[in-house]
Amino acid sequence: MRHPLSGAAARQRRVIPSRPTTTTARRSSLRYLSVFAFALTVLSACGGGESNVVTGNRDGVLHYGNGTEPQGLDPHVVTGVPENHIIRALFEGLAVKNPITLEPEPGVAERWEFSDEGRVITFYLNPEAKWSNGEQVTASDYVWSWNRALHPMTGNEYSYMLFPVVNAEAYLKGEITDFNEVGVKALDDTTLEVTLNAPTPYFVQLMDHYSTFAVHPETLMQFGEMTDRYTPWTRVGNIVSNGAFTLTEWSLNRRIIVEKSEHYWDRDKVSLNAVVFYPMENVVSEERMFRVEQLHYTQVVPLDKIPLYRDMPDTPYVQAPYLGTYYYLINTKRPPVDDVRVRQALALSVDREKLVRTVLQETAVPAYSITPPDTLGYFPPKLFNYNPERARALLAEAGYPNGEGWPGLEILYNTNEGHRKIAVAIQQMWKSELGIDITITNQEWKVYLDSVTQIDFQIARRGWIGDYVDANNFLDLFITDGGNNNTNYSDPVYDDLILYKAPKAETREERYALFTEAETMLMEEMPIIPIYTYTSKHLIHPSVEGLYSNLMDSLNLKYVKLVPGRTLPEALR
Amino acid sequence: MALLNVDNLSVSFVTRNGTNKAVDNVSFSVEERQITAIIGESGSGKSVSCYAMLGLVPSPPGRIDGGTAHFQGRDLLALSEDELRAIRGRDIAMIFQDPMTCLNPFMKIGDQLIEPLTLHKGLAKGPAREQAMALLDEVGIRDPQAAMSAFPHEFSGGMRQRVMIAMALINEPKLLIADEPTTALDVTIQAQILKLIAELQTKRNIGVLFISHDLAVVSDIADQIVVMEKGKVVESGQPKAIFDNPQHPYTQKLLAAIPSGQKAADTVTPDPLIRIDNLRTWFTPTGGADPVKAVDDVSLEIHRGEVLGLVGESGSGKSTLGRSILRLVPITGGQITFEGTELSSLEGRSLKQFRHRMQMIFQDPYASLNPRMTVYDTLAEPLLLHGLVRKADLDQAIRELMDNVGLARAFVRKYPHEFSGGQRQRIAIGRALATRPEFIVADEPVSALDVTIQAQILDLLADLTKEYGLTMLFISHDLAVIRQIADRIAVMYHGKLVEEGSTAQVFETPQQDYTRSLLAAIPGANAA
Amino acid sequence: MNTVAPVFEDAEKGSSLWHDAWLRLRKNKLALFGGSVLLFMVVVALLTPWIAPYSYEAQNLDLGASPPSAAHWLGTDIFGRDVLTQIMYGGRISLAVGFIATAVALLIGVTWGAVAGYVGGRVDAVMMRLVDILYALPFMIFIVLLMVVFGRNILLLFLAIGAVEWLTMARIMRSQVQSLRQQEFVEAAVSVGLSPAAIIRKHVVPNALGPIIVYTTLTIPSVMLLEAFLSFLGLGIQPPATSWGLLISYGAETMEEYPWLLIFPGCALTLTLFSLNFLGDGLRDALDVRGSKD
Amino acid sequence: MLRFMFIRILQALPVIFVVITATFFLVRSAPGGPFDQEKIVIPEVKKALEAQYRLDLPLHEQYFAYLGDLAQGDLGPSFKYPGRSVNEILFSGLPVTAELGLYALIIALCIGVTAGVFASLRPNTAQDYVPMSLAMIGICMPSFLLGPLLVLVFGIWLDWLPITGWGDIPGDKILPAVTLGSAYAAYIARLSRAGMLEILSQDYIRTARAKGLPEWRVVTQHALRGGLIPVIAFLGPAFAGLLAGSFVVETIFQIPGLGRFYVQAAFNRDYTMILGTTVFLSSLIVFFNLVSDIIAAWLNPRLRHQFQGGSS
């Protein structure tokens, strides 16, 4: 079957009549030339028996293992990590994160100013920031795009990223229908004024999240309504983006190719000519492809392979702290874990150091709090330790000395090899330290989600990856009836700290002190058992430079360089 | 010098249970342009000796222990497989018993026919086809052109055997080995095929080795007869000598077994046990074509205590008629009345009540016994089912049945495959008698059996009919057999009853041409 | 009949098909070997709680995965648990699942196929269309639903596996019965007056057993692997309980690093497979009373 | 012939219809919806999403709306991949999976028939036992084990063949096809051995030998045709099974085929995708069963005759 938008018809539609573009013809022929050249190089790579890495280094093409096939490439519609990587290659936000420090840096906006005690931000857009069809990225593009991102009909699952903006939440929930009441205004083509509900220190950071990106309004309207989710505007030949790269091939479940954009404002800094994203679902296959030099970069590394890689000289293995916590949810309304002493006993008898050393092969950091350490300078308090004696005492206090009379407890996790290993190890720790019977249950992903949302479990595995670098993102999980609370934990004092006191804090120190207070409350009440802090784990070919590790595992492909001639360490060949 | 000279041939089969001598020091010869017939019952080693010469006995388990077989001066047994292969199909050709299974069902007749030509003579396809068509014409295939591109299933058994003969003769062999070529055929067809073989033999000057269990069949055509029993040649000589003056007891037995004579006419009172009125049994093939009228408007009476012989060729509907009476096939119309009870409307329990009063004996004793049930179980099943004996008396009842059908009691826990065909048919008869039926349909009960066994079974049936006071519908294609056992004869042709009368009437004054042709086809008429 | 077997006494008539099959099976060395191995496995599985060298859940995290050694003959897994013990305990589950689930499938499939094949006509059409439908339904959704509706339960595992495996069994049985139905001995049984159920039970099923037995011996190992898949989806057994299927699928992930985690459970399954096959072929031959002729 | 096909298709329609209906209600009664995420979705957003995909309608209206679309050949939009229709995804994956299945089947046929025929020529000897034992292992060897094993041996240790991809590097289609085909090769070996043993004991094989045909011609020209009929009958269901069962192989070898969508749709609760693949696959099963029945019948002259419908 031929898709209605394939081939010539689609190509014609790309020419947008409302904005006369004189250079379209020349550019499109140029593009097809370059696609042709690229196809040739790919073909010759096949014939010559050279690996992707060798040809890629020669031609400036990065071969990138990217988890799964992306749902799509519409920034306001999709969610997920693989999508993030591709979208951030194609699009650019008002601000971007420094690849090392994660501090905001100029993106589409060359600068921004705070006023009204931090409640108003004015972004000054770079006049050189261009769409891939050569048109300028304007402030009104942003207003249109945020309208789309927040419109109830769009169904943007990350719309809450814009909730700090005045009336954004009300607009999404349909309480107001006039987008003019939402706190975003285009003062002129290059000036965008955003009004916030309260001073939000991390707001500029959010401008690097794809749900706040601008899309090209005319292109979208070519293919349907503003709020349509499933128009083909993101397809090759249709899509107009403003990032360092443009989309040139999208083969389902096979690969996505992006090429260096000619219109990107900072194009001189872009070293790569193209990036090929591979949807590698099977981690074992991904590692093997890396080993035979078919990939420059892997998204993950199989746990069992890590010791081998780590011990190797000049290892391509790179591990870095990651803004995410692995923890067990506790249903605080179900016996026996409705008793805080039982919860504490369980938390105290998990030997996190040992778990990390053995089962996790040092690929994680033991966690004693929900917020990962050093979240933009915030260090959570460490309130307890591995202490089996104390745990046994607490359990005895709760009425189960040496596990006597223990009614049984079930750990729920979603079907996954890693979760299984953790559960099996912890089950055994609790059994041997506390003398209590534990059963383990796994459920298929959506069934598990259902159980967690209904809070139909005693203990359930959970992980939280930060959307932005701020402790608030972790601590506001546990406000009363929070959608991601899932523990029945409820404390008005805690709610007050997170929702009202912290946002009004004048200084960073004051704010962090309030967070510490909240985190202490949480760890005393123990509705969750923190287990470890994630790390990001990648295999990176020695020829790749400029792929910096950071807390968000957020890489910016515009800084990546390929240095030909370097090979994998001897041990791998 | 004879065409084929077999001297002291010995063949044995090595199996798990020991060595079994199938052919023991057998000698015979085939002269050029003559027909030598080997006679013997199944298992006598007559076929094995021929297959062994041509290297067609699978080894293992077969093993040639000794002897020579000189054909045109060369010892076939000493030849290599390749040399033998060059002779097979070129100088020595074979036709087999069952034309239904001996032609490759997946190949066109023409392709199978020309295979020996292209193989041995290196003929191109075109000329080979010409030759094949000429030969098909010669063996009496009406439309050779069409036959060449037909598949075997499109032909009747007789026609297939003609094709087999054409295939055997296509390379103008010196010797033709015909292994029971007519046994699987109807009597009328059998006569035609025999005639054809005899004609071709004279016309083409070939030697024929004719293997059969039936003396009557070969009596008309053989120049020389060799009688085998249990792997040994017991007697040989000219047909006339053998027929007139058989020396060996086994030969005498064979001769005696040729069905002859006629049942002494009992006086049967015309008291109809079964009445059939306008019975129709039609089969509608899947796909909705026209129905096959297997039994078409047949009316018939079977009197109490009589044996009614039902004669017809295969496909005449005689078996279907028998099965219709027993309600084993659904009938399309008409009525069957059993002692005044309308059978065609009975269902379920009331039908089961009647089941034990009417039983059937099937043609193929190999197929009609459950291979996984012992004799005991087979016989016990109907007894227990109808509550005819008490559990305690079961052994006794089975013993009696075994005695009655002439089976040694010791066989009671054996499985059907451990018995010979005749013994199996005795088991089947025993099963039929177990329910103490009043009426039995015997569907070709002896046609799958060797001649000598056939005679025994016929005797047994005749005795039992008397002893149990049975009424029987005896179905057969063989008039000679029917004549021996039946009181009256009914002739079926294409689903219709064409003639009906007492045995003497039908034999002496047949009314229909069809009946006359059946009578003419009885083999060995001159020998009897 | 050239060779007449020794004379038997009438009194021996009590023998049955199964008894005779057993007599014949006893002579088949390969089948006996297969049977003995299976028996040995069953005995070991039954005795495992008493004879296993280690506790199946006791971990030694610091030891981790270690190759075969004097202390752990077949090595240890990543939790430092003894692989031999794991295989022994896994065998309990796998053998039970393999045999029971297959028996369930056998029972349903043979009955279903026999009835459809014997009765024929419209009943056959409806019954087999139902089989077609079940074939086409998305298996995964079916499993998830089973899990949700009935909760998690080892019995459910049998049900789920049986529900899948009986379909093919029914098809094989049906085609067997269809050809058997034409045979004269079935007709003879009808004329004797046997009811259809009795005919199926006594005359049809015993004669269709050959292909069924062969298929069954192939089914048991695949059932063991299917169990692993279902346990993986959350239906069936939960850690730390294990099975051969689970051990193999875990072992497959680390075949390069810790090959013993794959090889030994794989051997256990392969040994079972071959034993079953030898036994199955032997049983088929033993039940085929005709086969004993040569 | 046409009549036969017509009847078969007519018989299949209710089956497919029941499958659609059952699947439709089954998937919707499974816990977890298509838009459930680890991070909770704001209720208003979820409502908007459900409205976009007609999930806010009463169940029976959804059902009839789906049937209406289906009647026009529209399988609906994918829930998981916004912007893609189920039709588009199916047709993007189908050629690849079909090609993979075809190669697997060819490999299975070549290996299976050779081994089976080879074994049948000398039953109960080493020539029989060795290939049949391998076949037994082949049947039971799951592809999640065989695939990585083949990759390790031929892709990494020996470095002979590419380990992933489909049509990117010459030779990258070999390992997946072998992995997928092996189980079927084993089945085919068993089937063809049994079929050949049956045919080789037929009378007409003796006829062929009596003609003086060399053994190889007896086997190839006379025995093979009948002996392989069970294999042909198996091919139809096998090919349909290959299409549905290629998931593991596609994942291991990074192949952009249909199998991945089929399985993931169930995990994602991508209702339209589940239904679409189910409808598609059950139609394929029906179709391929029909085709293999027709081929088997065509090979069997007796049945061929019936099909031609002549009332001779």
Shape of chain B: globular
**Strand runs of chain D, count:** 0
Catalogue the unreliable spans of chain B: none
Mean pLDDT of chain D: 83
N/C terminus separation of chain B: 34 Å
Taking the sheet with the most strands of chain B, its summary is: 6 strands, mixed
If you compute it from the alpha carbons, what radius of gyration of chain D comes out, rounded to the nearest whole angstrom?
Answer: 24 Å
Which sheet architecture does the biggest sheet of chain D show? Answer: none
- Beta-strand content of chain D: under 5%
* Distinct helical segment count of chain B: 20
Q: Count the strands of chain B?
A: 20
Shape of chain D: globular
Described by its quaternary structure, the protein is: heterotetramer
Rg over C-alpha atoms of chain B, rounded to the nearest angstrom: 25 Å
The termini of chain D sit apart by 15 Å
Share of residues in helices of chain B: 25-40%
Largest inter-chain contact set: A-D, 57 and 59 residues
- H/I helix tally of chain D: 14
Backbone structural class of chain D: mainly alpha
In the predicted model, the low-confidence regions of chain D spanning at least 5 consecutive residues are: none
Percent in helix of chain D = over 70%
Give the topology, please.
The complex is a heterotetramer of chains A (573), B (528), C (294) and D (312).
Chain A: H1 7-14, H2 24-48, H3 52-59, E1 61-65, H4 81-90, E2 95-97, E3 104-106, E4 109-115, E5 120-125, H5 139-150, H6 168-172, E6 184-188, E7 191-195, H7 203-206, H8 217-223, E8 245-251, E9 255-260, E10 274-278, H9 283-291, H10 306-310, E11 317-330, H11 340-348, H12 352-357, E12 365-366, H13 388-397, E13 409-414, H14 417-434, E14 438-443, H15 445-453, E15 459-465, H16 472-475, H17 492-501, H18 508-525, E16 528-539, E17 544-545, E18 561-562
Parallel strand pairs in A: 1-10, 13-14, 13-15
Antiparallel strand pairs in A: 2-3, 4-5, 5-7, 6-7, 8-9, 9-10, 11-15, 11-16, 12-16, 17-18
Helix pairs in contact in A: 11-13, 17-18
Chain B: E1 4-15, E2 18-30, E3 35-39, H1 46-53, E4 62-71, E5 74-75, H2 81-87, E6 92-95, H3 99-102, H4 109-121, H5 125-138, H6 144-148, H7 157-169, E7 175-179, H8 187-204, E8 207-212, H9 215-219, E9 224-229, E10 232-237, H10 239-244, H11 249-257, E11 272-283, E12 292-303, E13 307-311, H12 318-325, E14 333-338, E15 341-342, H13 348-355, E16 358-361, H14 375-385, H15 394-404, H16 421-434, E17 439-443, H17 451-468, E18 471-476, H18 479-485, E19 488-493, E20 496-502, H19 503-508, H20 513-520
Parallel strand pairs in B: 3-8, 3-9, 6-7, 7-8, 13-18, 13-19, 16-17, 17-18
Antiparallel strand pairs in B: 1-2, 1-4, 4-5, 9-10, 11-12, 11-14, 14-15, 19-20
Helix pairs in contact in B: 4-5, 4-7, 5-7, 7-8, 11-17, 14-16, 15-16, 16-17
Chain C: H1 17-25, H2 29-51, H3 83-119, H4 121-136, H5 139-150, H6 154-181, H7 184-192, H8 196-233, H9 244-253, H10 260-287
Helix pairs in contact in C: 1-10, 2-3, 2-10, 3-4, 3-6, 3-8, 3-9, 3-10, 4-6, 6-8, 7-8, 8-9, 8-10, 9-10
